[in-house]
Structures are given as structure tokens and as C-alpha cells.
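Comment thread on ticket #2218

A.B. wrote:
> Attaching the input chain for the structure job we discussed in standup.
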Amino acid sequence: MHEYIAAIDQGTTSTRCMIFNRQGEPVGVHQLEHEQHYPKPGWVEHDPLEIWARSQEVIKGALRKAGAAAGNIAAIGVTNQRETTVVWDKLTGRPYTNAIVWQDTRTDAIIAELAREGGQDRFRGKVGLPLTTYFSGPKIAWILRNVDGAQQAAEEGRAIFGTMDTWLIWNLSGGTQGGKHVTDVTNASRTMLMDLHTLAWDQEMCEVMGIPPVMLPEIHSSAEIVGHTDANGPFGGVIRIAGDLGDQHAAMVGQVCFERGEAKNTYGTGCFMLLNTGHEVIQSKNGLLSTVCYQFGDEAPNYALEGSIAITGALVQWLRDNLRLIDSAPEIENLANTVEDNGGIYFVPAFSGLFAPYWRSDARGAIVGMTRFVNRGHIARAVLEATAYQSREVLDAMNADSGVDLKSLKVDGGMVQNDMLMQFQADVLGVPVIRPKVPETTALGAAYAAGYAVGFWKSKAEMRQNWQVDKTWYPDEASKAGTDFFAQWKKAVTRTFDWIE
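C.D. wrote:
> Ran it. Output below, let me know if you need it in another format.
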């Protein structure tokens, strides 16, 4: 009896497997962190083999907690940290080097080289993206140029590329024994190698970046059967793999943002705000990304405008791991509540440069406004406020591009459990902030895509019925967060520019 859908959510800091019932409720969850590697300043890496090992562990753990076996699972959806890039040998299954994470800035020289002719927006009309270190294509180019043997193996068709969804699906479906080398339109739209209008790999983009097309995965929609699990794999049976979306796109589906004009913000390692623009590609004039929102089977794709912020939850981790001001991430709320305001300081976390709406890879992090009055509580508060201010900048750009003034914002991700942050976010935005009852919308979206593909959920309306409000924060009319304090934040941001020559 197919009672459940399974979702694997492979994120920047951890991997989890969640088992959902027909009501979209989690019945089994298991999650494990993986190591972050920082071999040089600006470099961020993951070990793909460690992530595959963690994935197998969390799958078994979630099945155990749900009391489920392969026969109970109708289909599997996969969602992933998007631009993180793996190149591996399809004959041995061994990566040529560690995965280069989306936050990594080592491709800055390649970006400068590509931007010499035509500037940062040289390819935006075709791929919807500016030239920055964020996207996967330049990361593949870096690996081919700098890792011994990779270029030749790629030309021979032996070295293959994937984002983390591709890596996991390849391993789940047999790996070296016939694993499926596939991706979906949402992940492909983050490589700079896919034409946003044709939804196919673009020959010119591959040539410009020096990437042999033979190493690229086959592009599918976000909701269709692309393969089956290996019977001897971690699920312990043959199950259809039927959903595949980048994490932010999956969150849009999990938040049931199916209509043009609906938006959500995910608060994770970074912050990602997406606005559904329907079947139309809107080219941003305000520093946002044009991207595929999702595509279900043969249906026309929905597109989105996206504002990507590199460092939000990662800043809380930095406070915990690097400065040791807190022992665990949830402690930051109590520490921030020991003071009434930020003490006049602003923390701009441009650790990997600034993403939307600035796209300044020359920027670096700064704390400004420091005086002897400032204590650790003020720093904790400034850390949380940075997330809210960055989200406001993205929302302003979104309103300008789309001409749609948002009436409310749906939120999800780990940081939405922080009441102080959510109230401050409502104050900064001036609109209600709404948290759903199931905040794990990324995994839920992957489950919805897989379930829709196999008929477990028959319609988008059925999924929409599952969505319920948990809590709403309304803006405080007396707050200066969205006016005076936001103006100070904008001033602080300019202090981070031109740090790297």
C-alpha cells in the first residue's frame, strides 16, 4: 500500500530525509550535518562522498522512524543546495575534487574574463543571470582548468557534472551500475548553461565557458519519473524517483505559490525570496535573477524572479563556531533579547561578497557603528537584523521589477522559529509575515512534485488544501525599522564596497 512520499533535502549544512503522508504531514524525519571545508579564503567545499554517506543514513533513519518500508513509498522527490558543483568519474564513482559550494568565490578571475566583453549582464537575456561567482558553469570551468586529468576525461565523456540532485539521483539509481545522469529545469537554470526560453543546454554558453556538452546531465521537468532506486540501495527496494527541484523552487511548491504574484522567503544558510511571474520570463532591472520556478510534467513552465542573499543563517553559525558567543543557534534569540536595540551597530555579512540586489564580489563583511557601549547582546541583535534588512532590499527590487506590491510574505526555513526575527522582519517590510504549520516546505515541495508526477496528489488544489497558517506577525506601526533604521543599514552596506581590489 503506497501511503507515503519520501523527500531527500540535501542542504548546505545538512541532509535530511522526510516521509510525508497524504495530508502533507511529516511522519518520519532524520537529519545529519556534514563538514564544511575552507581550504583558502573565499573557498568553500563539501565532500560529495560524505554527503552520499549521510544521505544513506538519513534515508534509513527516516524509514525507521516512520515505521515504513520501500513498499509503503509511492515515489521519491529530491531537492538540493543548487549551484554546488560536482564533477566525477562515471566509471569509478569518484569525484575529481571536492564539490565547490555555491558560496565559493574562487571563480572571480573567470568571471572577470567573461565580463570583459559585454559586462556583468552579457548573458542575462539568454540565461536570466548576471556574471558572478555564484553559478555552476564557471565552477565547472574552474575544475576543468585546474584539476589534473579533468579536461581530458570530460572530453572523453568519462568525467560528468552534476549539482547535488544529479549526484544523489545517479547514486540512488545504481551509480556505476547504470545510474541515471539527470537534472531538472530549476537546477539547470542556475548553471548559466541553459537557455531560459528553450529549457535546453545552450551550445554557445558551453563554448564560451569551455565545457564539453557531453558531461552535462539530461534535463527533465521537476515532476516526472526519471528513474528508479536500486533494490540494494538505502531504501531497500525499487521506488520511482519522480521529483527534482532546487531547494528554493521546492519551497515555492511547498508553500503552494502556484499563482502569478505569490511569493515566499526561505531563511536558511542564505535567504532566498522568490516571486512567481507565471509563464513569463521577466528580466530584472534591479539586480534580481530570472529563473525557472518549476515545471510539472508536460505543463508550461512557471518562471520566477529571485533575490538571493548569501549569508543569513550562516552568520548565526559563524557567531557560534568562530566567535563562540553562543553554544547553539537557538540561543541567539535569548542573547538578542538582553538588549532593547542594536546599540547603533549594523552587521553587513558580505563574507562571499554581496548577492542581490548589488552583486558586488569586491565587498567583504563589516560591523559599523561600534562604540564602547556595544556588548555581545547588541552583536547578536545586529546579526538577526541583518537578515531582515537584506530581505527588505530584495523585496523592494521585486516590487520595482514586477509592479506588484506584496500584501504579505510567506516564510519558511530554520530561522522562522525565531519570533524576535520574524516580528522585526514584519516591521522592516511593513507587511504581515506568515509561517505555515509545516515549516519544512523545501522537503514538502520535493514530495509534492514527486507525488503529483505519480498521481498521489491529483491536483495543485489538493496540495493547496493541505497548507495551513501556524502564526502571523503584523508590523508595528510605531516601529522605525523600515524607515530610519533601514536608511542606516543602506549606509552601512556602502562601507563594504571595493574592499577587494
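A.B. wrote:
> Thanks. Noting for the ticket: The chain has a mean pLDDT of 94.
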